[in-house]
Specification:
By secondary structure, this protein is an alpha/beta fold. It contains 14 helices and 16 strands. The protein has two domains: 2-219, Carbamate kinase; 297-435, VC0802-like (2-Layer Sandwich). 39% of the residues lie in helices and 21% in strands. The relative contact order is 0.10.
């Protein structure tokens, strides 16, 4: 059994949906996980924002625009009148449901129901297209087996038991279609695995079924050694370890959702990154194997805020750091980087939801400084922190870039440097030139 996940760009147009159908039309057992068509989730978020602000006219306008886009998709995707009618009826049903949110009080749970429509529509369209082309397949609803627990973590026992129960309903069938991202919570309500969660869905399904491999189809030829949006002449990386890929995904490589790696790593299931628009390209294989030492890639994570707490009470004191960390735990705000001195501690966060409360609580222990618009530049490679020349190479390349923080030695596979976001492109290009193209 293989699990194949196709992202929003891979199913973003009728032509690309047809390409995906060709890729999955094989004789091998397979589960296909689909994201919403590209742009749909952003549109649904905008609609949700309008509804939350009680701007019904704005919401209705956005709904009408999105519905017209899907009607065009139906007209281009299907050949026969039968399936054009089926597709149109399905789109009408979903948009009638979306419009129903303009009639009543819009609650937080209804936001999740609204956001789920993108995956539900894309998977239904794809299933109809397979039926029109006489490709035998079954659409199994992710809401029947994908669930998170009270801690918002996947309930892997529930997923395994209920997914296998769904598959057992269709003996002899080899091709199954389902939705990424969406799930139910412990109360049975519609919920989700957060943005980018379709990768996570694919990984969880792969683990539940002990799949041969999980293939993530996207719009680039695997992990690159730098960000191709900002750096020219980057190169795909053929092989990565799980640890290296996890560092890259967490610190800004948009190609893979960070949560995807851990379940696959624990189960020892390879994750392959492939390009839907260039299926013959090798892509990147992520496995338990290490493929040589040295820096393999650079990633950048934007939207970082640095917080410095300065207090004479830190000097020769114990328990101070615990009090600081307890504040972040209280507001469920993860910390990315941390450095300390005798009288201060600096750390970074990317979730600003509770920033004002965090700063207020920290001020009980000392002077607090906050710097916005920061970027973490992350160098990744097997055991690079133990190589004597690695840090020198990095700092030589960044000698004209102001550095705010450095995290070195916390991981053998990662050296992280915090810089002002205005210097991001310069930093990425100088690192690429110095490390990879010299």
């Amino acid at each position: 059994m293989r699990v194949m996940k196709f992202g929003g760009t891979s199913v973003g147009t009728p032509d690309r949906i047809k390409t995906v159908a060709k890729l999955v039309n094989t004789d091998e057992p397979m589960i296909v996980v689909l994201s919403a068509m590209s742009g749909t989730t952003n549109s649904l978020v905008e609609i949700s924002d309008y509804l939350g602000k009680k701007n019904l006219d704005g919401a209705c306008e956005k709904i009408n625009i999105l519905e017209k886009q899907y009607k065009k998709v139906v007209g281009s995707l299907f050949d026969s009148k039968e399936f054009k009618d089926k597709g149109s009826e399905m789109i009408q049903d979903h948009f009638n449901y979306i419009r129903s949110f303009t009639q009543d009080l819009f609650t937080s749970n209804e936001v999740k129901c609204l956001l789920a429509q993108g995956e539900l529509i894309s998977s239904a369209l794809f299933q109809f297209y397979l039926e029109e082309k006489n490709i035998q397949s079954v659409l199994i609803p992710a809401l029947n087996f994908m669930r998170i627990d009270r801690e918002q973590e996947p309930d892997q026992f529930y997923i395994r038991e209920n997914l296998n129960r769904e598959l057992e309903k269709y003996p002899g069938n080899k091709l199954f279609i389902t939705q990424g991202f969406i799930c139910r919570n412990v109360f049975g309500e519609v919920d989700n695995l957060k943005r980018g969660g379709s990768d996570f869905t694919a990984s969880l399904i792969g683990v539940a079924l002990k799949a041969e491999e999980v293939i993530i189809w996207t719009d680039i030829d695997g992990f690159h050694d730098n960000d191709p949006r900002f750096v020219e002449n980057t190169h795909p990386i053929a092989e990565l370890s799980f640890d290296e890929a996890a560092e890259l995904a967490y610190f800004g490589a948009k190609i893979l959702h960070p949560s995807t790696i851990l379940p696959a790593k624990v189960a020892g299931i390879p994750v392959i990154i492939k390009n839907t628009m260039n299926p013959s390209a090798h892509g990147s294989a992520i496995t338990n194997k290490s493929n040589g030492k040295g820096i393999k890639a650079i990633a950048a994570k934007d939207g970082i805020t640095a917080i410095r707490v300065k207090s004479g009470r830190m000097l020769l004191a114990y328990g101070f750091m615990r009090k600081v960390f307890e504040i972040f735990e209280l507001y469920k705000t993860p910390i990315d980087m941390i450095t300390t001195s005798e009288i201060s501690v600096s750390l970074t966060i990317d979730d600003l939801t509770h920033l004002s409360q965090i700063v207020s609580d920290l001020e009980n222990y000392g002077t607090v400084e906050v710097d916005h618009n920061q970027t973490i530049i992350c160098a990744v490679g097997e055991e690079i922190a133990s190589e004597s020349t690695t840090a020198a190479d990095l700092f030589k390349a960044l000698e004209k870039v102001p550095v705010r923080m450095i995290s070195y030695g916390g991981s053998q596979n990662n050296i992280s440097i915090l810089i002002p976001s205005a210097f991001k492109k310069q930093a990425l290009n100088t690192l690429s030139s110095h490390l990879f193209n010299s």
